Amino acid sequence: MALADFDLVLFGGSGDLSMRKLVPALYHRDRAHDLPSTARIICVGRHEWSRDEFLTALNDNARPHIAQELFDPAFWETFCTRLTYVTLDATNASTYQALVDVMRKDASITRIFYLATPPSLFATICNNLAGCGLATAQSRVVLEKPLGRDLASAKLINEEVGRVFAESQIFRIDHYLGKEPVQNLLALRFGNVLFEPLWRREWISDVQITIAEELGVANRMGYYETAGALRDMLQNHLLQLLCIVAMEPPTCAAPNAVRDEKLKVLRSLKPFTPQTIAQNIVRGQYRAGHVNGMPVPGYRKEAGANPESRTETYVALKAEIDTWRWAGVPFYLRTGKRMADQLAEIVVRFKNIPHSIFAQPNSSFQPNCLVIRLQPDEDLQLNLMAKTPGDGMRLRPVELELDFRETFKMPRMDAYERLLLDVLRGQLTLFMRSDELEAAWAWLEPILDYWEREQDQPVPYAAGTWGPAAASALIGRDGLQWREEALPEL
Fold first, then answer.
1. Does domain 177-412+434-486 have CATH number 3.30.360.10?
2. How far apart are the two ends of the chain, measured CA to CA in Å?
3. Which of 269, 325, 401, 403 is most buried, most CB within 10 Å of its CB?
4. Is residue 237 annotated as a catalytic residue, yes or no?
């Protein structure tokens, strides 16, 4: 599908996200001949850069993040002619005239405003765009996380941005929904007949969703200290993945058909009480340890940290969905920094066999698992039991694996490439709607209130491990294990 001509304005265009992700993603799509020849990219920032200084910044900060096999010096030079830099103070309405001056006046050209800025600037930028006549009925706005820090602030963002842009013009981005395996989860569930009859409480034991990072907070301490793992990762990425796993089949692939079903999941999550928060949520903070054999400091010893910080760098929780399909099936969500490995995966574990006809006990059988791996590799695994070669009937676990890179011999898009193309097409399916955002915050806010009211202290865990021992106890109370703990020794 050919894209219409556009002017894409990147607020925060000199910032880390634009340089590491957005500009390289646009280069890759231009290299694949997806962008119209006259489309333009306008980077907006507070640096008072000349054209040459801007190009130097691109070469230093964006170019290294372009896939080496796709980089072509001549094409890079051509791509850079699309890019313009505008010095602008997002909070000062008078400086927006510089942006007006470089925007094309043709009403048929789509205008896209990507706000890679703190959420505190969303309303100001949108109001200033409206004030200078740039926010039209044909415009679109992209909002990066964090979309608020609680329900009230999320509602305020929705209201203030909604005064300028209609809901159909607002793209709340979550890059995890652009990852290839998440797309394939939709294809697996709704493009095949095999799994859907089994995708329910009668056959599924539990679901685990993990996003683990080896990295610490790096240079994000100022943001992270006010956010923490629950706001930074669980409220958006993990809950969106849960919705994809648990939602009912939509009537079609239209944006609102899919988002309606995701909203139903969020509204069906069993509310937390003070008692269940204490029982079903583990909150941790990393201490000194070793990651990849190298010593790393604890969170409170990181540069700029509060030495008495209560900010969590790890969260694990047990969620329940009160529907006919999922009643009684626990969903375990966890995310953490300074973990033993970089890993993002969804594990759907089926129930064990009811009876063994072989000369080995039921306990020796590993439950069938479907593993959707998002990073570091993107693949699907189906864990089964199979007979070992040779005499006798002895069964052991085996894996059927689909490696997307090996199966599909074609260039792959990363998440931001796919989502940017969807923005340019006006395709909203993979973007959160305002009621989704508010439903997620409404479910999580009692946790935040409890932690603040009780002055809850996160439990320590050593960097380079899989988190606090209490997280193993959380899942262990249900007779289950996290996947890395349950893997057989072969």
1. yes
2. 48
3. 269
4. yes
